[in-house]
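ARCHIVE ENTRY
Sequence with per-residue tokens
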Amino acid sequence: MNKPPLANQYEDDRHFITAIARGLDVLACFRSGNKVLGNQEIAQRCKLPKSTVSRITYTLTRLGYLTHDEESSKYQLGMATLSLGVGLLAKLDIRQVARPLMQTLADETQGMVTLGTRDRLSMLYLENCRSRSALTLSMDVGARIPIVSTAMGRAYLAEIPLQEREEIFGRVRELDEQASDALMVGIASSLSDYERLGCTCSFGDWQKDVNAIAVGLDLGRQFPVMAISCGGPSFHLSESFLLDEARPKLLDIVRRLKETVGQPA
């Protein structure tokens, strides 16, 4: 599901500064798999006039948030963008503790183990460990996946307060009311799974040939709510294997991470 431009979501809010939102929308276009973009591509993604995008990219380039390649007339993220995430990454030192635990599970399951948090209606990969097998999915840190159809997104939804969850559901319905009905059924089932199994499941819901389970990770107010998932191709990681073999180990990782920061398991 594509993320709606920030400016469009709050157009009736008199405290909302549309120009800033549009600039942030432009920066958000540069995802893991789209490192170089032209004004036309950005305009299509942000649903803005090309002339408006040209002024925004010019401004962001002058400030160092984008760099411009004269030969191709395209842009990529500049070094100033890195400074925006430094404070958050400093808070996420938990990744250093999680990484070896995640890599062990990835090797044991020959799957992919990922730590992520929410970015609007997506889950953003913060850490990703693959097995040394060639069977894992090709996705890197910085990649985004849907929040409503993936195990990771559903685990995040199960972990957050009801009010925040309902707000997200409302935004999903605004985007596609018809499709959201089916998605809500899947989410309701996942919330039930979370109560019963301690994890959420997505067996072919996101991509028909991908199975995954996930557990929410709430480490207290100094961290964003996160989720850890374990998954991979369905022909390699069956539902029973993930639930019987991977689930206890995934729950143990969450328990150990909570103990690291002094949170009750």
Remarks:
- Residues 92-260 form a domain with the Beta-Lactamase fold (CATH 3.30.450.40).
